[in-house]
Structures are given as structure tokens and as C-alpha cells.
Amino acid sequence: MRPTSDDNRMRKASFGPAAENHTINYDEHMKYICFSFLYPHQLWRMITVNLIHMGWFHLLSNLSKQLMYGILLERKYGSVGVITLYWLSEFGASLNSMLSGSRNCK
């Protein structure tokens, strides 16, 4: 993917009343918008989102569920089928989240 041009990234944007003068860079404003497609050239986020976890407990609970069900599914459908289902499900969940307009920014 090609990087965003400097004239786009360094564009100034003003928010709020002029008396407060809230001028920020494009990057600073866009990092608070959660849609993957709104931040230029970062579609990779829709594929890699399932690799990120909220903490050790979240990671361990996900791994235990994947081991518990993944081994059974792999025996029945094979490795390629399980991997394909895993990534397509993750991509569909990302697309659904993006289209439903969820904004879980902090």
C-alpha cells in the first residue's frame, strides 16, 4: 500500500470556536476515528485486528477456545478449511463493525 502524501497528512484542521483555536494536524484528528477505511491506505487493519488482544486473560481465553474447537474442526475439515474459515470470519466481522458505524475510541 502506498503511503499518504505529506500534503494530506500535514493538512491543518480547526475545530471548535475561533476563540479557543483548536488547530491540529490531520493525523492527530484521524487517530480518534475508528473506521478502517477513513484513515488512508490502511486496509491491512481489517485483516490484522484479530491478532490484537486486550490483555493476557483475553489472549489465553481466545487460545483455549481455539484449541478446544479448532482441533475438532481441523480433523473434520482440514487445516486449509479451518484457516480459510478463520480469516473470512474475521474479515466479515471487521466489515460488519465498520459498516454498522461502531466507534469504540477512547
UniProtKB/TrEMBL annotation:
The keyword GTP-binding does not apply. Residues 41-102 form the Peptidase S54 rhomboid domain. SUPFAM superfamilies: Rhomboid-like. Keywords: Hydrolase, Membrane, Protease, Serine protease, Transmembrane, Transmembrane helix. One of its GO terms (biological process) is proteolysis. One of its GO terms (molecular function) is serine-type endopeptidase activity. The keyword Transmembrane applies. Its main location: membrane. It is an enzyme of class 3 (hydrolase). One of its GO terms (cellular component) is membrane. It is a multi-pass membrane protein. Its EC number is 3.4.21.105. It is found in: Membrane. It catalyses: Cleaves type-1 transmembrane domains using a catalytic dyad composed of serine and histidine that are contributed by different transmembrane domains. Belongs to the peptidase S54 family. Serine protease involved in intramembrane proteolysis. This is rhomboid protease. It comes from Adineta steineri.
